[in-house]
Amino acid sequence: MTEFEKLGLDNRIIEAIQKLGFENPTPIQQQAIPQLLNDKRDLIGLAQTGTGKTAAFGLPLIHFTDFSKKHTQALIICPTRELCLQITRDLTNYSSEYENANIVAIYGGASIENQIREINKGAQIIVATPGRMVDMIERGRVKLHMVDTVVLDEADEMLNMGFKEDLDHILSETPEEKNTWLFSATMPVEVSRISNNYMNNPIHITVGKQNQGAENIEHIYYVVHARDKYAALKRIADFNPEIFGIVFCRTRIETQEIAEKLIKDGYNADSLHGDLSQQQRDNVMKRYRNKTLQMLVATDVAARGIDVNNVTHVINYNLPDDPEVYTHRSGRTARAGRSGVSLAIVNLKEIGKIREIEKKIGKQFTKEKLPDGVQVCEKQLINLINKIQVAEVNENEIDKFMPMALEMLSGLNKEELIKRVLSEEFNRFLEYYRNAPDLNVEDRGAKDRNQSSKGRFNTQATGRLFINLGEMDGMNQELFRKYAAQVTNLDPFEFKRINIKNTFTFFDVSPEKAEYVHECFQFKKFKGRKLRIDHSESAQSSSSSGKQSGSSNKRSYGNNDNEKNKFYKKSSTSNRSKENTSKKSHPPRRPSYFE
Ligand code: AMP
User: Fold this and answer.
1) pTM score of the predicted model
2) DSSP letters along 377-397, please?
3) C-beta 149 within 6 A of ligand 1
Protein backbone atom coordinates (compact mmCIF):
# COMPACT_ATOMS: atom_id res chain seq x y z
CA MET A 1 0.00 0.00 0.00
CA THR A 2 1.45 3.38 -0.95
CA GLU A 3 1.57 6.30 1.48
CA PHE A 4 -1.18 8.00 -0.51
CA GLU A 5 -3.40 4.90 -0.37
CA LYS A 6 -3.05 4.86 3.42
CA LEU A 7 -4.64 8.32 3.66
CA GLY A 8 -8.10 6.94 2.85
CA LEU A 9 -8.79 8.82 -0.40
CA ASP A 10 -11.16 7.49 -3.04
CA ASN A 11 -9.46 5.07 -5.48
CA ARG A 12 -10.17 7.28 -8.47
CA ILE A 13 -8.15 10.06 -6.85
CA ILE A 14 -5.28 7.68 -6.13
CA GLU A 15 -5.32 6.60 -9.76
CA ALA A 16 -5.28 10.20 -10.99
CA ILE A 17 -2.40 11.31 -8.79
CA GLN A 18 -0.40 8.23 -9.65
CA LYS A 19 -0.67 9.29 -13.27
CA LEU A 20 0.66 12.70 -12.25
CA GLY A 21 3.67 11.00 -10.69
CA PHE A 22 2.92 11.94 -7.07
CA GLU A 23 4.62 9.28 -4.98
CA ASN A 24 4.44 10.46 -1.40
CA PRO A 25 2.23 13.04 0.28
CA THR A 26 3.97 16.27 1.23
CA PRO A 27 3.95 17.13 4.98
CA ILE A 28 0.89 19.35 4.69
CA GLN A 29 -0.97 16.66 2.76
CA GLN A 30 0.06 14.09 5.33
CA GLN A 31 -1.39 16.26 8.07
CA ALA A 32 -4.48 17.70 6.44
CA ILE A 33 -5.91 14.86 4.35
CA PRO A 34 -6.55 12.17 7.01
CA GLN A 35 -7.92 14.77 9.43
CA LEU A 36 -10.36 16.16 6.90
CA LEU A 37 -11.45 12.72 5.71
CA ASN A 38 -12.08 11.44 9.23
CA ASP A 39 -13.65 14.53 10.67
CA LYS A 40 -14.79 17.05 8.11
CA ARG A 41 -14.69 20.39 9.88
CA ASP A 42 -13.12 23.82 9.59
CA LEU A 43 -9.40 24.08 9.05
CA ILE A 44 -6.68 26.71 9.17
CA GLY A 45 -3.53 25.81 7.28
CA LEU A 46 -0.45 27.97 7.69
CA ALA A 47 1.66 27.09 4.72
CA GLN A 48 3.79 28.67 2.06
CA THR A 49 3.18 28.22 -1.62
CA GLY A 50 5.06 25.26 -3.00
CA THR A 51 4.25 22.98 -0.07
CA GLY A 52 1.59 21.05 -1.94
CA LYS A 53 -1.29 22.84 -0.26
CA THR A 54 -3.51 22.81 -3.36
CA ALA A 55 -3.64 19.02 -3.22
CA ALA A 56 -3.93 19.15 0.59
CA PHE A 57 -7.34 20.77 0.27
CA GLY A 58 -8.09 19.72 -3.34
CA LEU A 59 -7.93 15.97 -2.83
CA PRO A 60 -10.35 15.87 0.15
CA LEU A 61 -12.59 18.32 -1.68
CA ILE A 62 -12.83 16.01 -4.67
CA HIS A 63 -13.29 13.02 -2.36
CA PHE A 64 -16.38 14.68 -0.84
CA THR A 65 -17.86 15.97 -4.10
CA ASP A 66 -20.70 14.10 -5.73
CA PHE A 67 -19.94 14.51 -9.42
CA SER A 68 -23.16 12.72 -10.44
CA LYS A 69 -24.97 15.90 -9.30
CA LYS A 70 -24.68 19.20 -11.10
CA HIS A 71 -25.07 21.76 -8.34
CA THR A 72 -22.14 23.69 -6.91
CA GLN A 73 -20.80 21.96 -3.83
CA ALA A 74 -17.49 23.71 -3.24
CA LEU A 75 -16.14 27.20 -3.77
CA ILE A 76 -12.47 28.12 -3.74
CA ILE A 77 -11.53 31.80 -3.54
CA CYS A 78 -8.00 32.90 -4.33
CA PRO A 79 -6.32 36.26 -4.99
CA THR A 80 -5.24 36.16 -8.64
CA ARG A 81 -6.26 34.96 -12.03
CA GLU A 82 -3.00 33.04 -12.32
CA LEU A 83 -3.60 31.12 -9.14
CA CYS A 84 -7.24 30.61 -10.07
CA LEU A 85 -6.26 28.96 -13.34
CA GLN A 86 -3.56 26.95 -11.62
CA ILE A 87 -5.93 25.58 -8.97
CA THR A 88 -8.52 24.79 -11.64
CA ARG A 89 -5.91 22.92 -13.68
CA ASP A 90 -4.69 21.00 -10.65
CA LEU A 91 -8.18 20.03 -9.49
CA THR A 92 -9.19 19.02 -13.01
CA ASN A 93 -6.18 16.70 -13.07
CA TYR A 94 -6.93 15.27 -9.65
CA SER A 95 -10.54 14.53 -10.70
CA SER A 96 -9.68 13.13 -14.13
CA GLU A 97 -11.00 9.66 -13.23
CA TYR A 98 -14.50 10.94 -12.41
CA GLU A 99 -17.11 11.19 -15.12
CA ASN A 100 -18.89 14.53 -15.41
CA ALA A 101 -16.49 16.43 -13.17
CA ASN A 102 -16.70 20.11 -14.08
CA ILE A 103 -14.40 22.50 -12.28
CA VAL A 104 -14.87 26.04 -13.47
CA ALA A 105 -12.56 29.05 -13.17
CA ILE A 106 -14.17 32.45 -12.63
CA TYR A 107 -11.80 35.40 -12.90
CA GLY A 108 -11.68 38.96 -14.14
CA GLY A 109 -10.28 40.14 -17.43
CA ALA A 110 -11.94 37.40 -19.50
CA SER A 111 -15.40 37.05 -21.03
CA ILE A 112 -17.99 36.75 -18.29
CA GLU A 113 -20.46 35.27 -20.79
CA ASN A 114 -18.27 32.23 -21.40
CA GLN A 115 -17.84 31.75 -17.70
CA ILE A 116 -21.62 31.95 -17.16
CA ARG A 117 -22.06 29.32 -19.86
CA GLU A 118 -19.59 27.03 -18.09
CA ILE A 119 -21.43 27.45 -14.81
CA ASN A 120 -24.76 26.74 -16.46
CA LYS A 121 -23.44 23.35 -17.57
CA GLY A 122 -23.22 22.48 -13.88
CA ALA A 123 -20.04 23.30 -12.00
CA GLN A 124 -19.59 21.10 -8.95
CA ILE A 125 -16.53 23.11 -7.91
CA ILE A 126 -15.99 26.80 -8.67
CA VAL A 127 -12.57 28.41 -8.35
CA ALA A 128 -12.87 32.20 -8.32
CA THR A 129 -11.12 35.48 -7.74
CA PRO A 130 -13.08 37.73 -5.35
CA GLY A 131 -14.01 40.61 -7.69
CA ARG A 132 -15.46 38.49 -10.48
CA MET A 133 -17.24 36.26 -7.98
CA VAL A 134 -19.04 39.26 -6.50
CA ASP A 135 -19.99 40.29 -10.03
CA MET A 136 -21.45 36.82 -10.67
CA ILE A 137 -23.38 36.91 -7.40
CA GLU A 138 -24.80 40.36 -8.16
CA ARG A 139 -25.90 39.23 -11.60
CA GLY A 140 -27.58 36.22 -9.98
CA ARG A 141 -25.54 33.82 -12.10
CA VAL A 142 -24.25 31.51 -9.38
CA LYS A 143 -26.18 29.56 -6.82
CA LEU A 144 -24.22 29.04 -3.66
CA HIS A 145 -26.97 27.82 -1.33
CA MET A 146 -25.83 24.19 -1.58
CA VAL A 147 -22.13 24.85 -1.14
CA ASP A 148 -20.80 22.74 1.70
CA THR A 149 -17.13 23.72 1.59
CA VAL A 150 -15.47 27.08 1.02
CA VAL A 151 -11.70 27.30 0.65
CA LEU A 152 -9.96 30.63 1.12
CA ASP A 153 -6.54 30.23 -0.44
CA GLU A 154 -3.74 32.70 0.20
CA ALA A 155 -6.06 34.58 2.54
CA ASP A 156 -3.33 37.01 3.58
CA GLU A 157 -2.70 38.00 -0.03
CA MET A 158 -6.41 38.56 -0.63
CA LEU A 159 -6.55 40.92 2.33
CA ASN A 160 -3.33 42.65 1.27
CA MET A 161 -4.91 43.27 -2.07
CA GLY A 162 -7.97 44.88 -0.52
CA PHE A 163 -10.50 42.10 -1.07
CA LYS A 164 -11.82 42.20 2.50
CA GLU A 165 -15.28 43.48 1.60
CA ASP A 166 -15.62 41.17 -1.36
CA LEU A 167 -14.78 38.21 0.85
CA ASP A 168 -17.36 39.25 3.43
CA HIS A 169 -19.92 39.59 0.66
CA ILE A 170 -19.15 36.18 -0.87
CA LEU A 171 -19.09 34.36 2.44
CA SER A 172 -22.43 35.87 3.43
CA GLU A 173 -23.96 34.22 0.35
CA THR A 174 -22.92 30.73 1.43
CA PRO A 175 -24.83 28.55 3.92
CA GLU A 176 -24.12 28.88 7.64
CA GLU A 177 -23.40 25.21 8.16
CA LYS A 178 -20.66 24.87 5.54
CA ASN A 179 -17.04 24.06 6.31
CA THR A 180 -14.39 26.71 5.74
CA TRP A 181 -10.79 25.82 5.01
CA LEU A 182 -8.45 28.77 5.15
CA PHE A 183 -4.88 28.74 3.89
CA SER A 184 -2.43 31.52 4.44
CA ALA A 185 1.34 31.95 4.45
CA THR A 186 1.12 34.36 7.38
CA MET A 187 -1.41 35.08 10.10
CA PRO A 188 -1.90 38.84 10.42
CA VAL A 189 -4.76 40.14 12.56
CA GLU A 190 -7.07 40.55 9.57
CA VAL A 191 -6.78 36.86 8.75
CA SER A 192 -7.41 35.98 12.39
CA ARG A 193 -10.50 38.17 12.23
CA ILE A 194 -11.86 36.19 9.27
CA SER A 195 -11.21 32.95 11.07
CA ASN A 196 -12.90 34.24 14.25
CA ASN A 197 -15.92 35.51 12.34
CA TYR A 198 -16.47 32.66 9.96
CA MET A 199 -14.95 29.54 11.40
CA ASN A 200 -15.98 27.10 14.03
CA ASN A 201 -13.45 25.21 16.14
CA PRO A 202 -10.99 24.80 13.29
CA ILE A 203 -8.18 22.27 13.08
CA HIS A 204 -4.84 24.11 12.95
CA ILE A 205 -2.06 22.88 10.71
CA THR A 206 1.30 24.58 10.31
CA VAL A 207 3.93 23.54 7.84
CA GLY A 208 7.31 25.13 8.47
CA LYS A 209 7.56 28.01 10.90
CA GLN A 210 5.19 30.89 10.52
CA ASN A 211 6.58 33.76 8.46
CA GLN A 212 9.54 31.72 7.40
CA GLY A 213 10.64 31.16 3.89
CA ALA A 214 10.92 27.59 2.69
CA GLU A 215 13.89 25.74 4.16
CA ASN A 216 15.57 24.99 0.91
CA ILE A 217 15.94 28.58 -0.25
CA GLU A 218 19.35 30.21 -0.02
CA HIS A 219 19.23 33.93 0.66
CA ILE A 220 22.14 35.87 -0.78
CA TYR A 221 22.85 39.56 -1.23
CA TYR A 222 25.31 41.59 -3.26
CA VAL A 223 26.30 45.15 -2.39
CA VAL A 224 26.82 47.49 -5.34
CA HIS A 225 26.48 51.19 -6.04
CA ALA A 226 22.90 52.11 -6.94
CA ARG A 227 24.06 53.05 -10.44
CA ASP A 228 25.52 49.56 -10.98
CA LYS A 229 22.39 47.58 -10.19
CA TYR A 230 21.57 46.85 -13.80
CA ALA A 231 25.16 45.78 -14.56
CA ALA A 232 24.98 43.51 -11.50
CA LEU A 233 21.76 41.97 -12.76
CA LYS A 234 23.36 41.20 -16.11
CA ARG A 235 26.39 39.72 -14.43
CA ILE A 236 24.22 37.42 -12.34
CA ALA A 237 22.36 36.34 -15.46
CA ASP A 238 25.58 35.76 -17.38
CA PHE A 239 27.10 33.82 -14.53
CA ASN A 240 24.04 31.55 -14.51
CA PRO A 241 23.56 30.68 -18.17
CA GLU A 242 20.69 28.33 -17.34
CA ILE A 243 18.88 30.78 -15.12
CA PHE A 244 15.09 30.59 -15.11
CA GLY A 245 14.28 33.50 -12.90
CA ILE A 246 11.90 36.19 -11.73
CA VAL A 247 13.30 39.70 -11.27
CA PHE A 248 11.24 41.74 -8.84
CA CYS A 249 11.04 45.51 -9.21
CA ARG A 250 9.08 47.96 -7.13
CA THR A 251 7.19 49.92 -9.74
CA ARG A 252 5.57 49.28 -13.07
CA ILE A 253 7.83 51.83 -14.73
CA GLU A 254 10.98 50.26 -13.36
CA THR A 255 9.73 46.81 -14.35
CA GLN A 256 9.13 47.96 -17.90
CA GLU A 257 12.48 49.74 -18.10
CA ILE A 258 14.54 46.83 -16.84
CA ALA A 259 12.76 44.37 -19.10
CA GLU A 260 13.28 46.63 -22.11
CA LYS A 261 16.98 47.00 -21.36
CA LEU A 262 17.40 43.25 -20.96
CA ILE A 263 15.62 42.58 -24.24
CA LYS A 264 17.73 45.18 -26.01
CA ASP A 265 20.84 43.56 -24.57
CA GLY A 266 19.87 40.21 -25.97
CA TYR A 267 18.36 38.37 -23.02
CA ASN A 268 15.23 36.25 -23.12
CA ALA A 269 13.28 38.54 -20.85
CA ASP A 270 9.91 40.23 -20.64
CA SER A 271 7.84 42.20 -18.17
CA LEU A 272 4.70 41.43 -16.22
CA HIS A 273 2.89 44.33 -14.60
CA GLY A 274 -0.48 45.94 -14.19
CA ASP A 275 -0.29 48.25 -17.20
CA LEU A 276 -0.42 45.31 -19.57
CA SER A 277 -3.72 44.10 -20.94
CA GLN A 278 -4.92 40.73 -19.78
CA GLN A 279 -4.06 39.27 -23.16
CA GLN A 280 -0.51 40.62 -22.99
CA ARG A 281 -0.09 39.20 -19.52
CA ASP A 282 -1.38 35.81 -20.63
CA ASN A 283 1.06 35.86 -23.48
CA VAL A 284 4.01 36.66 -21.27
CA MET A 285 3.02 33.98 -18.77
CA LYS A 286 2.58 31.42 -21.51
CA ARG A 287 6.07 32.11 -22.79
CA TYR A 288 7.50 32.00 -19.31
CA ARG A 289 5.69 28.81 -18.40
CA ASN A 290 6.97 26.98 -21.45
CA LYS A 291 10.43 28.43 -20.82
CA THR A 292 10.85 30.41 -24.02
CA LEU A 293 11.34 33.29 -21.61
CA GLN A 294 14.26 32.97 -19.28
CA MET A 295 13.69 35.99 -17.09
CA LEU A 296 10.40 37.46 -16.03
CA VAL A 297 10.63 41.01 -14.72
CA ALA A 298 7.63 41.61 -12.51
CA THR A 299 5.94 43.76 -9.92
CA ASP A 300 4.76 42.09 -6.73
CA VAL A 301 1.11 42.42 -7.54
CA ALA A 302 1.45 41.02 -11.05
CA ALA A 303 3.56 38.10 -9.85
CA ARG A 304 1.20 37.07 -7.07
CA GLY A 305 0.11 33.51 -7.36
CA ILE A 306 2.57 32.65 -10.11
CA ASP A 307 3.00 28.95 -9.78
CA VAL A 308 5.75 27.88 -12.09
CA ASN A 309 7.97 25.05 -11.04
CA ASN A 310 11.74 25.04 -11.49
CA VAL A 311 12.26 28.77 -10.98
CA THR A 312 15.98 28.76 -10.21
CA HIS A 313 16.49 32.35 -9.03
CA VAL A 314 14.34 35.03 -7.52
CA ILE A 315 16.18 38.31 -7.95
CA ASN A 316 15.24 41.30 -5.81
CA TYR A 317 16.33 44.17 -8.00
CA ASN A 318 14.95 46.34 -5.26
CA LEU A 319 13.95 45.03 -1.88
CA PRO A 320 10.35 45.51 -0.76
CA ASP A 321 9.63 47.67 2.29
CA ASP A 322 7.58 44.94 3.88
CA PRO A 323 9.51 41.78 4.85
CA GLU A 324 6.33 39.74 4.30
CA VAL A 325 6.50 40.67 0.64
CA TYR A 326 10.03 39.31 0.53
CA THR A 327 8.73 35.96 1.81
CA HIS A 328 6.19 35.86 -0.99
CA ARG A 329 8.82 36.75 -3.56
CA SER A 330 11.32 34.14 -2.45
CA GLY A 331 8.55 31.55 -2.24
CA ARG A 332 8.34 31.62 -6.04
CA THR A 333 11.42 29.45 -6.11
CA ALA A 334 12.13 26.14 -4.33
CA ARG A 335 8.65 24.85 -4.97
CA ALA A 336 7.58 21.23 -4.50
CA GLY A 337 10.63 20.26 -2.47
CA ARG A 338 13.14 21.70 -4.90
CA SER A 339 15.85 24.11 -3.89
CA GLY A 340 16.30 27.67 -5.08
CA VAL A 341 18.13 30.92 -4.59
CA SER A 342 16.77 34.29 -3.63
CA LEU A 343 19.18 37.10 -4.44
CA ALA A 344 19.06 40.74 -3.47
CA ILE A 345 21.03 43.44 -5.22
CA VAL A 346 21.39 46.22 -2.66
CA ASN A 347 23.27 49.45 -2.22
CA LEU A 348 24.86 50.39 1.11
CA LYS A 349 21.74 52.22 2.26
CA GLU A 350 19.59 49.16 1.73
CA ILE A 351 21.59 46.80 3.93
CA GLY A 352 19.33 47.72 6.85
CA LYS A 353 16.45 46.13 4.99
CA ILE A 354 18.38 42.89 4.73
CA ARG A 355 18.73 42.86 8.52
CA GLU A 356 15.00 43.48 8.98
CA ILE A 357 14.13 40.65 6.65
CA GLU A 358 16.59 38.33 8.38
CA LYS A 359 14.86 39.00 11.68
CA LYS A 360 11.46 38.40 10.21
CA ILE A 361 12.22 35.17 8.37
CA GLY A 362 14.62 33.90 11.02
CA LYS A 363 17.33 33.18 8.47
CA GLN A 364 20.59 34.83 7.59
CA PHE A 365 21.54 36.11 4.21
CA THR A 366 24.99 35.32 2.90
CA LYS A 367 26.86 38.26 1.51
CA GLU A 368 28.50 37.28 -1.72
CA LYS A 369 30.66 38.96 -4.29
CA LEU A 370 29.56 39.38 -7.84
CA PRO A 371 31.78 37.37 -10.16
CA ASP A 372 34.39 39.15 -12.18
CA GLY A 373 34.68 38.96 -15.95
CA VAL A 374 36.98 35.93 -15.97
CA GLN A 375 34.64 33.98 -13.74
CA VAL A 376 31.67 34.79 -15.95
CA CYS A 377 33.61 33.79 -19.06
CA GLU A 378 34.71 30.55 -17.47
CA LYS A 379 31.16 29.69 -16.53
CA GLN A 380 29.92 30.46 -20.03
CA LEU A 381 32.69 28.40 -21.51
CA ILE A 382 31.81 25.37 -19.39
CA ASN A 383 28.21 25.80 -20.43
CA LEU A 384 29.20 25.93 -24.05
CA ILE A 385 31.31 22.80 -23.73
CA ASN A 386 28.42 21.03 -22.07
CA LYS A 387 26.15 22.03 -24.91
CA ILE A 388 28.62 20.73 -27.45
CA GLN A 389 28.85 17.44 -25.57
CA VAL A 390 25.12 16.85 -25.71
CA ALA A 391 24.43 18.44 -29.12
CA GLU A 392 22.25 16.29 -31.28
CA VAL A 393 23.94 15.31 -34.51
CA ASN A 394 21.74 14.74 -37.51
CA GLU A 395 23.93 12.13 -39.18
CA ASN A 396 21.98 12.03 -42.44
CA GLU A 397 22.05 15.74 -43.00
CA ILE A 398 25.59 16.41 -41.90
CA ASP A 399 27.17 13.37 -43.57
CA LYS A 400 27.05 14.85 -47.03
CA PHE A 401 28.99 17.91 -45.92
CA MET A 402 31.56 16.06 -43.85
CA PRO A 403 34.10 15.28 -46.62
CA MET A 404 34.20 18.95 -47.55
CA ALA A 405 34.44 20.10 -43.94
CA LEU A 406 37.18 17.59 -43.13
CA GLU A 407 39.10 18.63 -46.18
CA MET A 408 38.85 22.33 -45.38
CA LEU A 409 39.82 21.85 -41.72
CA SER A 410 42.51 19.24 -42.33
CA GLY A 411 45.29 21.71 -41.56
CA LEU A 412 44.17 22.08 -37.94
CA ASN A 413 45.02 19.67 -35.18
CA LYS A 414 42.43 18.73 -32.55
CA GLU A 415 43.47 21.39 -30.07
CA GLU A 416 43.44 24.17 -32.63
CA LEU A 417 40.10 23.03 -33.92
CA ILE A 418 38.54 23.03 -30.45
CA LYS A 419 39.93 26.48 -29.75
CA ARG A 420 38.45 27.87 -32.91
CA VAL A 421 35.03 26.27 -32.45
CA LEU A 422 34.83 27.64 -28.93
CA SER A 423 36.16 31.05 -29.88
CA GLU A 424 33.63 31.44 -32.65
CA GLU A 425 30.79 31.34 -30.14
CA PHE A 426 32.67 32.73 -27.22
CA ASN A 427 34.72 35.71 -28.35
CA ARG A 428 31.84 38.10 -27.93
CA PHE A 429 31.71 37.22 -24.28
CA LEU A 430 35.41 37.56 -23.81
CA GLU A 431 35.27 40.94 -25.41
CA TYR A 432 32.43 42.23 -23.33
CA TYR A 433 33.96 41.09 -20.10
CA ARG A 434 37.55 41.99 -20.77
CA ASN A 435 38.44 44.64 -18.19
CA ALA A 436 34.93 44.44 -16.75
CA PRO A 437 34.92 46.51 -13.54
CA ASP A 438 34.56 45.06 -10.08
CA LEU A 439 30.99 45.97 -9.14
CA ASN A 440 31.28 45.01 -5.50
CA VAL A 441 31.13 47.59 -2.75
CA GLU A 442 32.68 46.76 0.62
CA ASP A 443 30.20 46.29 3.44
CA ARG A 444 32.30 46.10 6.60
CA GLY A 445 29.51 45.01 8.92
CA ALA A 446 28.83 41.91 6.88
CA LYS A 447 32.46 40.85 6.86
CA ASP A 448 32.53 40.59 10.60
CA ARG A 449 29.21 38.87 10.84
CA ASN A 450 29.71 36.48 8.10
CA GLN A 451 32.84 34.50 7.70
CA SER A 452 31.93 33.21 4.31
CA SER A 453 31.65 36.71 2.96
CA LYS A 454 34.24 36.03 0.35
CA GLY A 455 31.44 34.22 -1.29
CA ARG A 456 30.96 31.45 -3.70
CA PHE A 457 33.78 32.55 -5.90
CA ASN A 458 36.49 31.89 -3.38
CA THR A 459 36.60 28.13 -3.58
CA GLN A 460 38.92 27.24 -0.69
CA ALA A 461 37.31 29.57 1.84
CA THR A 462 33.86 28.12 1.28
CA GLY A 463 34.84 24.46 1.14
CA ARG A 464 33.94 24.17 -2.48
CA LEU A 465 34.42 20.71 -3.88
CA PHE A 466 34.42 19.06 -7.24
CA ILE A 467 33.23 15.52 -7.92
CA ASN A 468 33.09 13.55 -11.13
CA LEU A 469 29.39 12.86 -10.92
CA GLY A 470 26.99 14.76 -13.11
CA GLU A 471 23.87 14.77 -15.24
CA MET A 472 25.23 11.81 -17.17
CA ASP A 473 24.91 9.82 -13.97
CA GLY A 474 21.30 10.88 -13.63
CA MET A 475 22.09 13.54 -11.02
CA ASN A 476 19.96 16.57 -10.35
CA GLN A 477 20.09 18.84 -7.30
CA GLU A 478 17.69 16.77 -5.20
CA LEU A 479 19.31 13.45 -6.04
CA PHE A 480 22.77 14.82 -5.49
CA ARG A 481 21.79 16.19 -2.08
CA LYS A 482 20.22 12.88 -1.11
CA TYR A 483 23.18 10.87 -2.35
CA ALA A 484 25.76 13.11 -0.67
CA ALA A 485 23.77 13.03 2.58
CA GLN A 486 23.66 9.25 2.42
CA VAL A 487 27.40 8.92 1.82
CA THR A 488 28.40 11.39 4.52
CA ASN A 489 25.57 11.05 7.04
CA LEU A 490 25.23 14.83 6.97
CA ASP A 491 22.02 16.77 6.55
CA PRO A 492 21.11 17.16 2.83
CA PHE A 493 21.07 20.93 3.26
CA GLU A 494 24.71 20.97 4.29
CA PHE A 495 25.36 20.68 0.56
CA LYS A 496 24.96 24.07 -1.01
CA ARG A 497 25.40 25.81 -4.34
CA ILE A 498 25.26 22.56 -6.16
CA ASN A 499 26.19 23.22 -9.73
CA ILE A 500 25.55 20.10 -11.75
CA LYS A 501 27.15 19.80 -15.14
CA ASN A 502 27.10 17.01 -17.62
CA THR A 503 29.94 14.95 -16.20
CA PHE A 504 30.83 16.69 -12.96
CA THR A 505 29.45 18.76 -10.12
CA PHE A 506 30.72 21.58 -7.98
CA PHE A 507 29.24 22.02 -4.54
CA ASP A 508 29.91 23.78 -1.24
CA VAL A 509 30.05 22.47 2.28
CA SER A 510 31.16 24.54 5.24
CA PRO A 511 34.98 24.82 5.22
CA GLU A 512 35.35 22.84 8.44
CA LYS A 513 33.42 19.90 6.96
CA ALA A 514 35.17 19.91 3.59
CA GLU A 515 37.90 17.51 4.64
CA TYR A 516 35.42 15.11 6.20
CA VAL A 517 33.24 15.10 3.07
CA HIS A 518 36.34 14.62 0.98
CA GLU A 519 37.27 11.54 3.01
CA CYS A 520 33.79 10.06 2.85
CA PHE A 521 33.79 10.16 -0.92
CA GLN A 522 37.40 9.28 -1.51
CA PHE A 523 37.09 5.53 -1.89
CA LYS A 524 33.50 5.51 -2.94
CA LYS A 525 32.22 3.97 -6.14
CA PHE A 526 29.14 5.04 -8.00
CA LYS A 527 27.60 2.26 -10.10
CA GLY A 528 30.98 0.54 -10.17
CA ARG A 529 32.88 3.66 -11.20
CA LYS A 530 35.42 5.08 -8.81
CA LEU A 531 34.54 8.57 -7.72
CA ARG A 532 37.04 11.37 -7.65
CA ILE A 533 36.51 14.28 -5.32
CA ASP A 534 38.75 17.26 -4.90
CA HIS A 535 38.85 20.85 -3.82
CA SER A 536 37.50 22.65 -6.79
CA GLU A 537 40.69 24.50 -7.72
CA SER A 538 43.02 21.52 -7.80
CA ALA A 539 40.34 19.26 -9.22
CA GLN A 540 40.37 20.86 -12.59
CA SER A 541 44.09 20.60 -13.09
CA SER A 542 44.21 16.93 -12.25
CA SER A 543 41.28 16.21 -14.52
CA SER A 544 43.19 17.65 -17.43
CA SER A 545 45.98 15.16 -16.99
CA GLY A 546 43.63 12.41 -18.05
CA LYS A 547 43.25 10.89 -14.60
CA GLN A 548 39.49 10.83 -14.78
CA SER A 549 38.09 7.59 -13.60
CA GLY A 550 35.23 7.54 -16.09
CA SER A 551 36.04 5.47 -19.13
CA SER A 552 34.03 7.40 -21.71
CA ASN A 553 36.03 10.18 -23.25
CA LYS A 554 32.88 12.29 -23.03
CA ARG A 555 33.74 12.50 -19.37
CA SER A 556 37.08 14.11 -19.78
CA TYR A 557 37.09 17.75 -18.93
CA GLY A 558 40.39 19.01 -20.10
CA ASN A 559 40.67 22.50 -18.75
CA ASN A 560 43.05 23.29 -16.00
CA ASP A 561 43.20 26.79 -14.71
CA ASN A 562 46.27 27.63 -16.68
CA GLU A 563 44.72 26.38 -19.82
CA LYS A 564 41.63 28.41 -19.16
CA ASN A 565 43.65 31.54 -18.67
CA LYS A 566 45.68 30.81 -21.74
CA PHE A 567 42.52 30.39 -23.71
CA TYR A 568 41.08 33.56 -22.34
CA LYS A 569 44.16 35.62 -23.11
CA LYS A 570 44.90 34.12 -26.47
CA SER A 571 41.41 34.45 -27.79
CA SER A 572 41.31 37.99 -26.59
CA THR A 573 44.50 38.87 -28.35
CA SER A 574 43.66 37.14 -31.55
CA ASN A 575 40.53 39.22 -31.87
CA ARG A 576 41.97 42.50 -30.77
CA SER A 577 41.63 44.18 -34.14
CA LYS A 578 37.94 43.34 -34.29
CA GLU A 579 37.42 44.37 -30.69
CA ASN A 580 38.95 47.77 -31.10
CA THR A 581 36.44 48.72 -33.69
CA SER A 582 33.39 47.19 -32.08
CA LYS A 583 31.16 48.97 -29.61
CA LYS A 584 31.15 47.73 -26.06
CA SER A 585 27.97 49.34 -24.90
CA HIS A 586 26.04 46.21 -24.10
CA PRO A 587 26.73 42.53 -23.74
CA PRO A 588 26.62 40.07 -26.57
CA ARG A 589 23.63 37.99 -27.35
CA ARG A 590 24.09 35.11 -25.03
CA PRO A 591 24.33 31.53 -26.04
CA SER A 592 21.29 30.37 -24.15
CA TYR A 593 20.11 27.05 -22.88
CA PHE A 594 16.60 28.03 -23.84
CA GLU A 595 17.22 29.17 -27.35
P1 AMP B 1 1.27 24.04 -4.30
O2 AMP B 1 1.91 24.29 -2.97
O3 AMP B 1 -0.09 23.47 -4.15
O4 AMP B 1 1.31 25.25 -5.17
O5 AMP B 1 2.12 22.86 -5.04
C6 AMP B 1 3.36 23.04 -5.63
C7 AMP B 1 3.67 21.97 -6.67
O8 AMP B 1 3.89 20.70 -6.06
C9 AMP B 1 2.59 21.75 -7.71
O10 AMP B 1 3.19 21.84 -8.97
C11 AMP B 1 2.09 20.34 -7.47
O12 AMP B 1 1.75 19.72 -8.68
C13 AMP B 1 3.26 19.66 -6.81
N14 AMP B 1 2.86 18.63 -5.83
C15 AMP B 1 1.88 18.72 -4.91
N16 AMP B 1 1.80 17.61 -4.16
C17 AMP B 1 2.77 16.78 -4.60
C18 AMP B 1 3.19 15.45 -4.23
N19 AMP B 1 2.62 14.80 -3.23
N20 AMP B 1 4.21 14.92 -4.92
C21 AMP B 1 4.80 15.60 -5.93
N22 AMP B 1 4.45 16.84 -6.33
C23 AMP B 1 3.44 17.43 -5.68
Assistant:
1) 0.50
2) HHHHHHHHHHHHHH----HHH
3) no
